[in-house]
Amino acid sequence: MKLIKGLIKQIYEKLLLRSSPEKRIRYLRKQGVKIGENCLINTMQFSTEPYLIEIGNRTIIASDTEFFTHDGSVHCFRDEFDGIVCGKIKIGNNVFIGAKSIILMNTTIGDNCIVGAGSVVRGNFPDNSVIMGNPAKVVSNFHIQKLIFRNSKGYLNTTNLSPSEKERLIKKHFGVE
């Protein structure tokens, strides 16, 4: 019966990835994840202790990001003691976490941070950090990154454009027909 319930949960979570962001967030909140306002979450991989995860306001979490609130390797010491090692994860306000990142237990990411795709993050990261790598470390400042984006040859203002208008603008900018 436990196996069937687990399979149903996996199928439901896969379907949620295709549904609205609001439905995903509502489901994750029911699982115990503390989620602020105006967030966009494109993953359903919130460990076996989702109630140990807190996400601030205006945070975006890209696809295939995984959260681990426990360390399963404690199993190697099962002859000496039996138990689990867990820790909290806290994500601040106005944070972007890139695709396929891994956020490990005992991690705090401050406000106004960017986590590069594929990063493995563990520890405490201050406000206004650009974080990336394996293991992840602070590589830049949030405000410097904003200047880099603003001055990038690839920066295009797509505010209030329809998807087709956005596509035309991008194709024109890069000479793609």
UniProtKB/TrEMBL annotation:
GO terms for molecular function: transferase activity. Pfam families: Hexapep. The keyword Transferase applies. Coiled coil: none annotated. InterPro entries: Hexapep, Hexapeptide_acetyltransf, Trimer_LpxA-like_sf. Keywords: Transferase. PANTHER family: SIALIC ACID SYNTHASE-RELATED. This is Hexapeptide repeat of succinyl-transferase. The lineage of its organism: Bacteria, Pseudomonadati, Bacteroidota, Bacteroidia, Marinilabiliales.
